[in-house]
Write a structure and sequence with these properties.
- With 138 residues, the protein is mainly beta.
- It contains 1 helix and 10 strands; from the N terminus they run βββαβββββββ.
- The chain has one domain: Metal Binding Protein, Guanine Nucleotide Exchange Factor, Chain A (Beta Complex), CATH 2.170.150.
- The chain has a 7-stranded mixed sheet.
Length: 138
């Protein structure tokens, strides 16, 4: 089981099993939400995710219809995001994990919106838009 929490520890979660993927997202929404050149997220099934504590500390921003980016209202840490399609999929910010998720990056998504100052040099697959397996912006 994977565990994680926000910066202040108010929001804590658990994830059963191994994540489906770990990807780097370069979309403008992720860049603005993280304040960095990209977002690193693990893709998991909603049924595998469980909020352990901090429901009252969670806030969300609906960045586009059905895309709810949840963050801790106390420390501002982005924690997870739900997708409208497929409805069983979500992402969790890899930086909030307590340990190694057991998967390695499998690609870069939304490369067409990549920050102009960032150069991708790792040789991983690059997708102009979302991941090939479904979901939207991480």
């Amino acid at each position: 089981m994977l565990t994680g929490h926000c910066l202040c520890g108010a929001v804590r979660y658990e994830i059963e099993g191994t994540p489906l993927a770990l990807m780097y997202c370069h979309c403008e929404e992720c860049r603005r939400a993280t304040g960095s050149s990209l977002n690193t997220s693990i893709f998991v099934l909603r049924s595998a995710f469980r909020l352990v504590s901090g429901e009252g500390a969670l806030s969300f921003h609906e960045s586009s219809p059905g895309n709810r980016r949840h963050f801790c209202s106390q420390c501002g840490s982005p924690v997870f995001k739900y997708f409208p399609e497929p409805p069983n999929l979500m992402t969790v910010r890899a930086g909030t994990l307590d340990a190694d998720p057991g998967v390695r990056p499998s690609g870069h998504i939304w490369v067409r919106e990549k920050a102009p100052w960032y150069e991708i040099t790792d040789g991983l697959p690059q997708y102009p838009t979302g991941p090939p397996t479904g979901g939207d912006r991480a």
